[in-house]
From TrEMBL:
One Pfam family recorded for the sequence: GST_N_3
Protein name in the entry: Glutathione S-transferase
Domain GST C-terminal, first and last residues per copy: 83-204
InterPro entries given in the database record: Glutathione-S-Trfase_C-like, Glutathione-S-Trfase_C_sf, Glutathione_S-Trfase, Glutathione_S-Trfase_N, Thioredoxin-like_sf
Keywords of this entry: Transferase
Organism: Polynucleobacter wuianus
Coiled coil: none
Length: 204
């Protein structure tokens, strides 16, 4: 299998962590979707990463779809519960974490792609508000539990770890670790895992 992605995308990091936790081999092919000569549209017409090319060809895209596909490939380290209600709970955590990454990327693009005189402070503030609301919800839902859902690591924890890690990477001014120490405890625990260590984004 081949995974098309980048080293800084939190969505790519999420699926890379899933493959590592599942002990599945996948070759990472680096692609800069913002480059003029990018070829990502040949595999994903949306022009986004990650994009998985299975051994039988074709393409699977969107990090949530790839993560679910990978989890079903091996019984090792089951990350998505089989029970429908529990599965929905884990996937809701993932949606919340992905939403944090969505908002962060939109805010970052506004600041880095638009000329200063065209940037919308109101738009950035709206995205920052989504991030703050989501962090508060994550912290409330986690409470004093060891994991986001159940008594072992699931895709919920992987997604949350990638989301808060992305904030540290791109938005260090958001002092979420001091504000939500329970989220930080979870993050520090995740950072001990080789899957998180191996996928740490390079220094900006």
């Amino acid at each position: 299998m081949k995974l098309i992605g980048s080293l800084t995308s939190p969505y790519v990091r999420k699926v890379r962590i899933v493959f590592l936790e599942k002990k599945l081999d996948v070759d990472l092919e680096l692609e800069n979707v913002w480059a003029a000569d990018t070829k990502i549209a040949n595999s994903n017409p949306l022009g986004k990463v990650p994009c998985l090319i299975p051994d039988d060809g074709g393409a699977i895209y969107d990090s949530r779809v790839i993560a679910e596909y990978a989890d079903a490939l091996s019984p090792v380290s089951k990350l998505i519960p089989g029970d429908n209600r529990e599965r929905a709970a884990v996937k809701t955590w993932e949606a919340l974490a992905d939403g944090v990454m969505d908002a962060g990327i939109l805010a970052r693009l506004e600041r880095t792609w638009r000329p200063a005189e065209q940037q919308s402070t109101a738009w950035v503030d709206r995205q920052m508000g989504k991030i703050q609301n989501s962090l508060r919800q994550m912290s409330e839902n986690l409470g004093g539990n060891a994991w986001c859902h159940g008594n072992q690591m699931t895709l919920a924890d992987v997604a949350v770890g990638c989301a808060v890690g992305y904030l540290l990477f791109r938005f260090p001014e958001i002092k979420w670790q001091a504000q939500y120490p329970n989220l930080d405890r979870l993050y520090q625990k995740l950072l001990q895992r080789s899957s998180f260590i191996e996928t740490e984004p390079p220094a900006a």
